[in-house]
Amino acid sequence: MILDITKGKDNPILRQVSPKQGPITKKTLKLLKDMEDSMIATNGVGIAAPQVGMNTRIAHITINKTQVFTIINPEIIAKSKETEEDTEGCLSLPGKWGPVARAKELTLRFTDLTGKKRVMKFKDFEARIVQHEVDHLNGTLFIDHVPEGMLEIEGGLAL
Fold first, then answer.
1. Which of 54, 55, 107, 140 could make a disulfide contact with 135, Cβ separation 3.0–4.6 Å?
2. What architecture is the 26-158 domain classified under in CATH?
3. Within a 10 A sphere around the Cβ of 132, how many other Cβ atoms?
4. Where are the domains of the chain?
């Protein structure tokens, strides 16, 4: 089922730190499936639970350009000092775009769908997606990283 995307830079759901996700239940699996359907339907490359009105630490990211990958209770444990600036947008802020500098590489600790704790490295665009979605789980929006006066109305890919 395609869910409504939570929108607005001042929306309280998008500005809360999401609590940890507990055990994966049938309800959680349904939410994850609906989030994936919603992300694909809106041409997104990532989606976090707050973007569909649920404050819990789960998100989907797209890896290898086509594979949807679930991260539960993600924690960025290392970032490269090297950054790269690129234009970002967001499903929750339609029509807004801006330059955001992000770490080029990172290491993420998370739980997968089977409940297994994992550590993975991400780089380049996939690292950008991870950082964007983890920001959502921490109540931060991409516009919080855009330099003053640099927010645009059109451009880039929605994360």
1. 140
2. Alpha-Beta Complex (3.90)
3. 25
4. 26-158
